[in-house]
Amino acid sequence: MRVLATARHPGAAEAVRPVVDSLRSAGHEVMLIGVSNDAPENKTFGGSAAIFERSGTEFVEFFATDPKHGVIDVPGYYASGLVDSFAPDRVLVGCSSSENLTGPAIEEAFLVAGVGASIPTVQVVESWGVWRRVPGTPAPSIWAALDSITATVMSTAGAPSDRIAITGHPGLDSYADAETPRSSKFRTYLGVEGYRAILFFGQSADSNTARKPFEALEWVLDSLGPKDRLILARHPRDTQDYRTLRERAEGRMIEPGIDSHRLLSVADVCVSQYSTMGLKSALLGIPTISITHPDDFPEIREAAGGIPLCVTGGSTEVQTPHTLRQLLQGDVAAGASTLKAAINVDGNATRRVMDLVIRDGL
User: Fold this and answer.
1) Which domain holds residue 230?
2) Which of 86, 107, 268, 304 has the CA that lies 20 to 30 A from 180?
3) What is the C-alpha to C-alpha distance for residues 207 and 91, in angstroms, rounded to an integer?
4) To 10 degrees, the CA torsion angle through 279, 280, 281, 287?
């Protein structure tokens, strides 16, 4: 079977990549298109290429296939041209956040081309708030959704419920039996040995949240105790200048510029707003705090009864600096087991999504 696949953002790439690797291992031919974010025009809209490179997954760079096209203004003839030349039996795409799109991005363009050519299409919706209707984009043959909350949010927003299959997140399969990582050598290298390391995962620069990452990070800085050290793990699409906060921290805050996954091995507490890394830290049994705002994601809050990561027991929610300060003065709870059960982290999500892709009669 020949599969044409793509993902735009890093989160979408993490969900699509294991499926692509498994399809190839099973003998299927996959053309995978990746998108960089190393230039001003694609800084906040790309990023999947780095995920594919890090994992060693073979892909074709989007701009290498046709440099005339932009990341978020992909013309129909580009995607249909790939469909004609590669002649895929299936189309597989990720689901990158689309709130700031002004035109069809690559995932949407592939859906349009696939559906237009009557090719079965699968879209992996790997997170609670990433899917929304994009004008001019048809529904795929089926969506592979993270969990029941994701399915409820999607159907409430207009996605046909009979086209939603709950599969879990393929990129989280490795967390099913994972233990909390610890590295004293890395702690020494970062200068946090003997301190409580509080790891803050930032948001992207285009994040449409009521409370901006700068304010959330400031809350954490102001809540540090004498034996705390703050580590900033900048989001790949975060362009915020944090120099004033680093100056205020007077040596208590570092930004090592190291891959966020490695930093988990030194974290005693993780703090985020809505970062996927906050989800990963919770799955690893690291006490996790979510700084939220009551006006953020009302549809998701209604469907889940709150912020899903917190409702499922993975994280403790705070909405004021005072509450955060009080929480950090004590022990922060961890709830990996209940979270894994709630979002189908059992090691089999990749297989479930792959079965959807190759299923006869899709």
Assistant:
1) 184-342
2) 304
3) 28
4) 40
- C-alpha–C-alpha distance, residues 120 and 92, integer Å: 9
Same domain, yes or no, for 163 and 236?
no
Q: Are residues 149 and 227 in the same domain?
A: no
| pLDDT computed for residue 44 by the predictor | 63
Question: What CATH code is carried by the domain that includes residue 324?
Answer: 3.40.50.2000
End-to-end CA separation in angstroms for the chain: 13
Query: What DSSP state is assigned to residue 172?
Result: G
For the chain (362 residues), the mean pLDDT of every run of 10, in chain order, is 95 97 98 83 76 96 64 80 96 86 83 96 94 89 96 93 97 94 92 96 77 92 96 84 91 91 95 93 96 91 92 95 95 90 96 97 84
Q: What are the helix and strand counts (H, E) for the chain?
A: 16, 13
* Phi–psi pair at 82, nearest 5 degrees: -65, -40
Residue whose C-alpha is closest to residue 222's, from 201, 252, 197: 252
Residue 43's contacts (CB-CB under 8 Å, 6 or more residues apart) are 37, 205, 237, 239
Q: Are 10 and 48 in contact (CB under 8 A)?
A: yes
Residues 103 and 208 in one domain: no
- Tell me the C-alpha distance between 47 and 274, whole Å: 18
pLDDT for 43:
60
As for how many domains the chain has, the answer is: 2
